[in-house]
Design a protein that fits this description.
This protein is 65% helix and 10% strand. By secondary structure, it is of the alpha/beta class.
């Protein structure tokens, strides 16, 4: 609840304005039964038609004011709920962008999507309903009690005996329903995960004829969501019928007691009619509040999930006095890292790279090549050792300042649903010369042939794998990076294009420090230095010729790829 209160604070005045409107609108509504009772008991017996018209006109004025004020109040409540949810969603999105990879691994992408969509929707719905019926309901209940007390104290006691029982039922049911809604949101997370996987892997699913299997898998998670939703809603659904039962029992008692009091001359008929109207108003208000309690149970579960992410501290903030390493563009000193914190995925890695030099990283699948690149960019922080970029410890960098030095192409990088030009620029201020140089260096001639404004589908669905990689390389080069990381970015390129790419990078970006992660020896053999990894450990570091003599693993890979006894 503190989360919602914090986001409501900037809109306090507007919310209070809406509350005031709802207050006076509800007061106008409460006057109607009282005026009706006065007409029945005081004016009609006198046969005073003029007074009847006057009071009927007064009732019309009260009705018009009630409707107008409540409509305006509802619009204000909706606007406040909209703005609160917008701010919350923006902050949640911004926080998600800055989460470290380890934090994203902890929360998972489907869960973050669910929190940003369905959870914020629950907050929006509850805030809006709270500012409408959360204000109007208590006013109608308390005002109804005051008005009935003024009409007939004995009958009012009947009503007052019912309300504590109803309040107790609402509190108990709401307390029991909260854990069910929390479990429901976890099930929704799982369903989002399955939907996301199917949307991303639809080609593989179709190619392997796994459509029926995936339908069964989705049906399973969908049934789980339905079961959890049924359990949660059935628990809180008891509130409304229980409230109605108790209030209607009270209404029966009012009629019985009221009839006996009218016969005894202790009450008047108009007071009984007004009392029944107030009872109906109170009944509807209690039903609205019971619905609000149900929404609050959902919102508390959702707000808690949102706040978990917002309160998760970002460890990637600049830290002073982390040491220097002048003279090197990139340096690793005894770096170790583990994803699961049980077994090292990288162990005691050390190397240095001067500005303008190129480093090739080679090794079997799972050797830790991409992990090493992720540590440079501080997607993860090393468990031990130090990493330096341009002579400065990466922990001392502001994150945007650190990553602005890099141009990166990952194995499964993202191509967006926009033009080729926008995909390369990616909302950066790239001048035409830099853009043209990047396209030329990346061997992306297909962009010129189709035009810089040609449409590119999401994930590069309308271009080939090689074209996608060249587009991504152009994106990385367009920002004139100090350090270029190419993570298996030429696997879909033929040898001729790959060779031309490497030659043009040296030609046009000779001052850029380049890190090439590859599976092919031919892609890295010309690098100034080569790092060989296996099972997260260094198995060789040096030039191609040096490693052919010193590293058995590197020599074996080279022979397997290039052929025994062939010139390398």
């Amino acid at each position: 609840m503190k989360l919602v209160t914090r986001y409501l604070k900037p809109y306090t005045l507007r919310a209070l304005g809406g509350i005031v409107l709802k207050f006076f609108g509800s007061i106008m509504e409460l006057f109607l039964p009282y005026l009706l009772a006065y007409i029945i008991d005081k004016i009609i017996p006198k046969n005073d038609a003029r007074s009847i018209y006057i009071f009927c006109g007064l009732m019309l004025v009260c009705s018009a004011l009630s409707v107008t004020l409540n409509i305006i109040g509802n619009r204000v409540a909706s606007a406040v709920a909209r703005d609160v949810t917008r701010d919350m969603r923006n902050d949640l999105f911004e926080k998600t962008v800055y989460l470290s990879n380890s934090q994203i691994d902890k929360w998972t992408i489907p869960s973050l999507i669910s929190r940003m969509t369905s959870d914020t929707h629950y907050v929006y719905r509850t805030v809006g309903w709270s500012l409408r019926m959360g204000v109007r309901g208590p006013i109608l209940i308390l005002g109804g009690i005051v008005m009935t007390f003024a009409l007939d104290r004995t009958l009012c006691l009947v009503l007052c005996c019912m309300l504590p029982v109803m309040a107790l039922i609402i509190i108990l049911i709401s307390k029991k329903g909260l854990p069910f809604f929390t479990k429901l949101q976890r099930s929704v997370d799982e369903m989002v995960r399955v939907i996301r996987e199917n949307a991303s892997g639809v080609r593989v699913i179709k190619a392997l004829s796994r459509v029926d299997a995936e339908k069964e898998r989705f049906d399973g998670v969908n049934k789980q969501v339905r079961a959890d939703e049924n359990r949660a809603n059935m628990t809180v659904a008891i509130t409304q019928p229980a409230s109605s039962l108790i209030l209607n029992m009270g209404l029966v008692l009012v009629i019985v007691v009221g009839a006996s009091r009218v016969n005894a001359g202790l009450s008047e008929a108009g007071a009984i009619v007004a009392f029944l109207s107030y009872f109906t108003i109170i009944l509807n208000a209690m039903i609205a509040i019971s619905r609000l309690i149900t929404m609050l149970s959902q919102m508390l579960a959702s707000a808690g999930r949102i706040d978990e992410v917002l309160q998760d501290p970002i460890p990637q903030k600049p830290e002073p006095d982390k040491g220097e390493s002048p003279g090197f563009a990139v340096e690793f000193r005894n770096v170790s890292f583990s994803y699961n914190k049980k077994r090292d995925d990288l162990h005691n890695i050390s190397f240095s790279l001067k500005k303008g030099e190129s480093l090739g990283i080679l090794g079997p699948t799972g050797a830790g090549k991409s992990t090493l690149a992720a540590l440079m960019l501080r997607f993860y922080d090393a468990d031990a050792g130090e990493i330096y970029v341009d002579g400065k410890n990466v922990l001392s960098y502001d994150m945007p300042a650190l990553r602005s030095r890099f141009g990166v192409v990952f194995q499964n990088d993202m191509v967006f649903d926009m033009t080729a030009e926008k995909n390369i620029k990616l909302w950066r201020d790239i001048d035409p010369i830099s853009l043209d140089t990047a396209i030329t260096t990346a061997q992306a001639d297909f962009i010129r042939e189709g035009g810089i404004g040609q449409a590119i589908a999401s994930h590069g669905a309308n271009i080939s794998g090689g074209q996608k990689q060249r587009l991504l390389i152009a994106r990385a080069l367009a920002g004139k990076p100090d350090i270029l990381i190419l993570d298996d970015s030429s696997s879909a390129l033929d040898y001729k294009t790959d060779a031309a790419l490497r030659a043009d990078i040296k030609k046009y970006f000779d001052g850029t420090t380049t890190v090439v992660i590859a599976q092919r020896v031919s892609s890295i053999k010309s690098c100034d230095k080569i790092l060989v990894l296996e099972n997260g450990e260094e198995r060789g570091f040096g030039t191609h010729d040096e490693l052919m003599k010193q590293s058995e693993l590197y020599a074996e890979i080279a022979r397997l790829q290039m052929g025994e006894g062939e010139s390398l």
